Amino acid sequence: MIAIDTNVLLRHVLQDDDEQSPKASQLFDLHERVLVTDVVLVECIWTLSGKKYQASRDDVIKLVGDLLGEPALVFENPQAVWAALNDFQADYPTHDAEGKRWKLPDFADALIIHKAKQTAKYWNETLQAVYSFDSGALRINGTRQP
C-alpha cells in the first residue's frame, strides 16, 4: 500500500498538469492499494469547492462517488465516508416557513460526525452527541449545539 497527498489526488482527479497528472495517475495503475486519508479527502474537496475550481455540491457528490468506486483507492474508514456522502447529499429542506435560507451540511462536517460515530463504535462506547456550532452540521442526526 502507498498513501498520497492532496496534491497528488488533485492532479489525478483534475488532469490539469501535463507533467504531474500522468505521474499521479500512474500511481493508481502501479499499486493495488492507494490510501486516501480523511484529511486528504477533505482537503481535496475544500480545494475543489473554493474560488479557483468552484465545485458544486453535485460535483462533490460525483467526485466522492467516483473515488469510492476506484478499485485501487482505500479510505481510513470507508463506512464513515459512505455515511458522510449520504448525509451530504440528503434532501434537506433549504428554507424555513418564512423563506429564510437554511445552511446545508458540508462534507467535512458530515465526515467528522460519522468518524466520531465509527470511532465510538470501534471503542465499544456510546456516543452521546457530536457538538457543533455549525448550523449545517446540526442538521445531521446525532449532532447537538453546546
Plain-language structure description:
- It is a single chain.
- The chain has two domains: 1-76, 5'-nuclease (Rossmann fold, 3-Layer(aba) Sandwich); 77-146, no CATH class.
- It is globular.
- 25% of the residues are buried.
- The N and C termini lie far apart (40 Å).
- The mean pLDDT is 95.
- The longest helix is centred in the last third of the chain and has 16 residues, at 107-122.
- With 146 residues, it is mainly alpha-helical.
- The chain is 49% helix and 8% strand.
SSE topology:
Elements: E1 2-3, H1 6-14, H2 20-30, E2 34-36, H3 38-49, H4 57-69, E3 73-75, H5 78-88, H6 107-122, E4 130-131, E5 143-144
Parallel strand pairs: 1-2, 2-3, 4-5
Helix pairs in contact: 1-2, 1-3, 4-5, 5-6
The fold-level CATH name of the largest domain is Rossmann fold
The largest β sheet comes out as:
3 strands, parallel
Low-confidence stretches: none
Helix content: 40-55%
Average pLDDT, all residues: 95
Order of helices and strands: EHHEHHEHHEE
Number-wise, the strands total 5
Estimate nothing, just give the exact number of structural domains.
2
What is the architecture of the largest domain at the second tier of CATH?
3-Layer(aba) Sandwich
| Percentage of residues in strands | 5-15%
Task: Report the structural category.
Answer: mainly alpha
Rg, nearest Å: 17 Å
Features:
mainly alpha, Rossmann fold, 2 domains, globular
Short recap of the structure:
The chain is mainly alpha-helical. The protein has two domains: about 1-75, 3-Layer(aba) Sandwich (Rossmann fold), CATH 3.40.50; about 75-145, no CATH class.
